[in-house]
Amino acid sequence: MPEPRQPHLNGAYYVPSIPPPSKAYYHPSRGGFGCCCLGSLFSCCGCIFNLIFQIILTVVIFLGILALIFYLFFHPNNVKFHVINASLTQFRLENNSLAYTMSANLSIRNPNKCIEIYYDRIEARGYYQGQHFNSVELGRFYQGHKKTNNLTVEFQGQNWVMLGENQLSKYNSERTDGRFSIDMKLYLRIRLKRWAQKGLSRRVTGGGTEIMLSNN
Q1: If phi over 0 gives left and psi between -120 and 50 gives alpha, with beta otherwise, what is residue 8?
Q2: Quick one: pLDDT at residue 54?
Q3: What's the farthest any 2 CA atoms get from each other in the chain?
Q4: Does 77 or 208 have the greater pLDDT score?
């Protein structure tokens, strides 16, 4: 079998050329070199500042709660005074000279849970229509928390008092009724003890108590 004949090539044979590989060019952004690094740095700083803020906020809240607990447990409440009973055997005014004999039983309560009280001095003062007529010193004592102590105050003697016309009229009216309105105030010097710590001595004035007494 005869071999196939090759086609006759008339002149040169051209094939399309292979284009050269394209080159990649780097175009820097407007931010300049290292924008990626700066972005990471800013993000890291933001995380650090956020963490610091959260720590500070947590500390402030904790200190606020601690201060509230300290205030509720250690802030002293006022001492409670109460007149249990009182008696008057003499209350006579002649020529601005007041003769009196009276006694009163008091209760003093410490309402605090964590505070103890040292009563270094207790002075009871008697007043009639704003005029001071007598003072007595009571014994010093210690009072534990949530404790109540009873005291007895006795006024006896004769003192000079200056009463105006209206005050004399009120005295005569009360003498006719047989009942006198007498005020008593307590002046204290106390020390507070919180657990094992004793505070400084301080002066306290008890609220005035009006006592209606019958002249027996």
Answers
A1: beta
A2: 87
A3: 173
A4: 77
Q: CA 86, CA 117: separation in Å to the nearest integer? A: 26
Return the SS3 of 156.
strand
Distances 195 to 84, 113, 117, 185 between C-alpha atoms, Å: 31, 11, 11, 30
Residue 79: predicted pLDDT: 85
Q: Is 183 helix (H, G, I), strand (E, B) or coil?
A: strand
**Which is nearest to 145 in space by CA: 187, 193, 83, 191?**
193
Q: What is the pLDDT of residues 106-131, one digit of tens each?
A: 999 999 888 899 999 999 999 999 99
Q: In a 10 Å sphere around its CB, with 0-12 CB exposed, 13-18 middle and 19+ buried, how is residue 21 labelled?
A: exposed
**Strand positions, DSSP E, 62-208:** 80-94, 97-110, 115-128, 131-138, 141-143, 147-160, 179-194, 197-198, 202-205
Determine the average pLDDT of the residues in 10-36. Answer: 53
